[in-house]
Input
Amino acid sequence: MENKMFCYQCQETAGCAGCTQAGVCGKKPDVAAMQDLLVYVTRGLSAVTTQLRAEGKEVSHEVNHLITLNLFVTITNANFDKDAIVARIRTTLDVKQAPLAQVDGRDKLPQAALWDGSDNWEEKAAQVGVLSTKDEDIRSLRELITYGLKGLSAYSKHANALLKDDPEVDAFLQKALAATLDDSLTVNDLVALTMEVGKHGVSGMALLDQANTGAYGNPEVTRVNIGVGKNPGILVSGHDLRDLEQLLEQTQGTGVDVYTHSEMLPAHYYPAFKKYPNFVGNYGNAWWKQKEEFERFNGPILMTTNCIVPPKDSYKDRLYTTGAAGFPGCKHIPGEIGETKDFSALIEHAKKCAPPTEIETGEIIGGFAHAQVLALADQVVEAVKSGAIKKFVVMAGCDGRAKSRNYYTEFAKALPKDAVILTAGCAKYKYNKLDLGDIGGIPRVLDAGQCNDSYSLAVIALKLKEVFGLDDINQLPIVYNIAWYEQKAVIVLLALLYLGVKNIHLGPTLPAFLSPNVAKVLVENFGIAGIGTVEDDLKLFFS
Output
């Protein structure tokens, strides 16, 4: 059967090989084609900006932000709106003209940098997609780099929204993206570049950590309500804290409550958000359960980033998008970096809706980012020295629909009682509502926050290495059993590899975009492995 598209950037890709007729995520072939073309023109613009920097010329923040947002738009489950993606391609081609005119060495630029959009776009997209790189190993590494950069772009964009930039991260992201057009680079060159992506992934996550804590304070241990109130509500999903802040400001005194969903849960841990009396709690679970949960919420839903599941007609008119997110037929709230977004349409919509239908009651606890854990360092260290805590198990990453992911729930249940889970990302929803108890007052599930807060887990590990006087981070009593789904998990993985972490187990399947030879490099150099059965993996980790 002829391929209508090709995409294998997420864990759920068809047959763990690639989506060729339609995306498992719901992405249609025409949308996939325009995403491929958007990546191509963004690579071209990045080649221009990289050449400008080589010539000692400046690149504006506006161009940096455009490139970052373009990549974010193409992350899995972020934007399904073909018209919005086409508009970004046109904008990118237009914006490119001014910096291109400043380049002296045009002969050094690849064809992507010079393409003016005059060809048939569908035909062009077919020529420049993933499979246009014929060598399997080169293709695998180019895509690994690109997906890592997509994850880095997401974290950079969230920092940019809080008016924080890192020129070195921007310059590297563009240089590395442009390098995926360079046919002279060997496998060894691309392996080295992949490790550089991990290095700048650490910088990007540190930038966002500084932006978030600078704006909203250090996360603190917090019990979050998972029940509902009597007022109509707005449900906020995704990752962008600045969007949530603006919505909370605009809902004051309106009689409308605000709830978080999925990756927005950790907003409750920041001190700055606790001042809003209508910030009620968290509704529901991980992103993949939204069809049933959004239907029962009754009020409008704001998707601030990726993790959109194509909506049911029963609530599609209540689904709003903003930022990188988009879905055809759903209202999009505009607003550039530094601008105040107008959420009045959501608020008025909410006033006409019934309060949320209760789906559960109780509380969940979180807020164990690096500052909070380090504040408890003496207690943690003493628990380790006394033997009360024998192992930490990093179970960060993503959740997803596949039944194979129930492994992580069963693994958490079966862990020895002297093991503590360190988590971040929506993977937590596989076990954060289990009654796993505590060890001397230390909860057995320490939730650091969103997927970008995996940085906190790295900081904690490095601090423990220092406290125990160890030479190697891998000497710590920490094992890594990480679930992945999309490109933000890729940058977290590459960041951990850059920091020297070895023997990471990745599941529920290894990425389809890793060729056998590239996978072999990761196995031989870093001990990367998949998962087995719960019983076998417990024996492996705790023998």
Remarks:
- The two ends are 48 Å apart (CA to CA).
